[in-house]
Amino acid sequence: MKIVINEPPRSKKNSMQIIRLGSRYSLTQSKQYKEYKRSCAKYLTGVVETPINIPVVVRCEYYMPTRRRVDLTNLMAATHDLLGDYGILADDNRDVIAS
């Protein structure tokens, strides 16, 4: 299976925001990541009927719009989370993503 997401990738863990929930604080994703996740819906919605629940190898190629440095592991974590959030993978743990 090949899925192409034609959007500039965003890292999930950079630029997190602190929000107030009553008397306590919590971290939430950046506006850029939330926008990226919404824009990926057209590429990831309805790709599979049932989520994949067997070990798979996920291969990612990223093409960045600029030459600035990025953290590859953060980009991969964001991609794995998107695959889980849109129901392509049953989970993004080691039992499903073998490598």
Topology:
Elements: E1 17-21, E2 24-28, H1 31-39, H2 41-44, H3 72-85
Explain how this protein is built.
It is a single chain. This protein is of the alpha+beta class. Helices cover 27% and strands 10% of the residues. The chain is built from three helices and two strands. It has a two-stranded antiparallel ribbon with strand order 1-2. The longest helix is centred in the C-terminal third of the chain and has 14 residues, at 72-85. 12% of the residues are buried.
Oligomer: single chain
Tell me, briefly, the overall form: globular
Percent of sequence in beta strands: 5-15%
Residue stretches low in confidence (pLDDT < 50, at least 5 long) are none
Helix count from the secondary structure assignment: 3
- Topology pattern, helix = H, strand = E: EEHHH
Main sheet: strand order: 1-2
Number of E-type strands: 2
Termini distance?
Answer: 15 Å
Mean pLDDT: 92
Helix fraction? Answer: 25-40%
- What structural category arises from helix and sheet content? alpha+beta
